[in-house]
Design goal:
The chain is α+β, with helices and mostly antiparallel strands. Among the domains are: 24-143, Immunoglobulins (Immunoglobulin-like), CATH 2.60.40; 150-232, Sandwich (Immunoglobulin-like). The chain has 7 helices and 18 strands. Strand 6 and strand 7 form a beta hairpin. Helix 4 packs antiparallel against helix 7 (352-358).
């Protein structure tokens, strides 16, 4: 029984040795995905060894395994008949090359240049040399570095108030963590602050002037980090009552100035209007100013007065018969409107002086007088 068991063991070992002989891929299989930052280059390792019984032509094929079983794998590069074929219509076209200029020497590795997030996937290396066939799969994950974060504050930055410091990176592969540090003053976060590394916030309760300073936030993931800087200034609460009172006083002063300007303007306008009315008003007890015509009439009357002493009864009637156009009107006649002006005396009245002289009477001329009795 023991002999038969030993024979079975020898048989199994011989079979296993036969299976493991020939073509082999010696690169160790990675238990975790290969992670690389976007924009960098990555090497997918595939080393192999040949056996003496592997006498067929050497073929090396790299393909992108389809995530859906209903779809075919995409060949991205091929080595066959001592020639490399790289111009396959795939997302990595023009960016994938064999690592060795002669892959048949046992290096089937490839390099993918300037990787993109769309290059993430499972890649397979297949080496064939009849009768040996071996393949190896590996997973590639392309990660994005955090974009430059944006630092800002939320809430009031006055003393005694709560203020929140925020840090946000809009792009980058998850998971991403945030850290804050103070770069000025005591270089430690305020004692009342609470840091959340996932959301990237620092909540400062009951902020004081000691919290003022420069803060730096760092956003980090597995492939990189970026930073931003924030200046925080905690100021005393402003005197709101004083500001309101000052504003009210300023408004009242402006209204008072406007009222004074309007008052002065209206007063000057009324004074000008009153003076204009006084200048245009004609007083009844003041005679009008003398004109050239009145001066001429005054000269004529004066000459007539000088000749009264030389008048005789023979020529007195002639003077009486003359129209008295040179008579100076009284102030009542000046003030009388044209419609009430006295009509010229009738013809009979003109002859009164002549008849009076024939009857032996002496006509006497009465000079014109003003209201106060003075002779004009």
């Amino acid at each position: 029984m023991e002999l038969s068991a030993a024979r079975w063991c020898v048989t199994l070992l011989s079979l296993f040795a036969g299976l493991t002989s020939g073509l082999q891929i010696t690169s160790s299989s990675a238990s975790t995905p290969t992670e690389v930052a976007s924009g960098q280059s990555v090497k997918l390792d595939c080393q192999f060894t040949l056996a003496s019984e592997d006498s067929g032509p050497l073929d090396i094929e790299w393909s992108l395994v389809a995530s859906d079983n209903q779809k075919d794998d995409q060949v991205i590069i091929l080595y066959s008949g001592d020639r490399a074929y790289e111009n396959y219509d795939t997302p990595v076209k023009g960016r994938v090359h064999f690592n060795s200029p002669d892959p048949k020497n046992g290096d089937a590795s490839v390099n993918i240049l300037t990787v993109k997030p769309t290059d993430t996937g499972t890649y397979q290396c297949k080496v064939k040399k009849a009768p040996g066939v071996r393949n190896k799969k590996m997973q590639l994950v392309v990660l994005e570095k955090p974009s430059k974060p944006r630092c800002y504050t939320e809430g009031s930055s006055h003393e005694g108030k709560d203020v929140v410091l925020r840090c946000t990176s809009d792009a980058g592969s998850k998971p991403m963590t945030y850290s804050w540090e103070k770069t000025t003053g005591s270089k430690v976060l305020p004692a009342s602050s609470v840091l959340d590394p996932v959301s990237g916030t620092v909540s400062v309760k009951n902020a004081s002037a000691s919290a003022s300073g420069t803060y730096r936030c760092t956003a980090t993931n597995r492939v990189g980090a970026e930073q931003c800087v924030l200046d925080l200034s905690v100021t005393p609460i402003p005197n709101t009552a004083g500001i309101v009172a000052g504003s009210i006083i300023a408004v009242l002063l402006i209204l008072l100035i406007i009222a004074i300007i309007l008052f002065c303007f209206c007063r000057a306008r009324n004074r000008k209007k009153y003076e204009k009315e006084i200048c245009n008003e004609i007083r009844e007890d003041v005679p009008p100013p003398k004109s050239r015509a009145s001066t001429a009439r005054s000269f004529t009357v004066a000459s007539q007065r000088s000749s009264l002493g030389s008048m005789s009864p023979s020529n007195l009637h002639e003077y009486a018969l003359k129209p008295q156009y040179d008579k100076i009107p009284s102030s009542e006649e000046y003030d009388r409107p044209p419609s009430q002006a006295p009509m010229p005396p009738p013809a009979a009245a003109k002859m009164a002086g002549y008849n009076l002289s024939r009857m032996g009477g002496i006509p006497v001329m009465v000079p014109a007088q003003t209201r106060d009795g003075s002779i004009v």
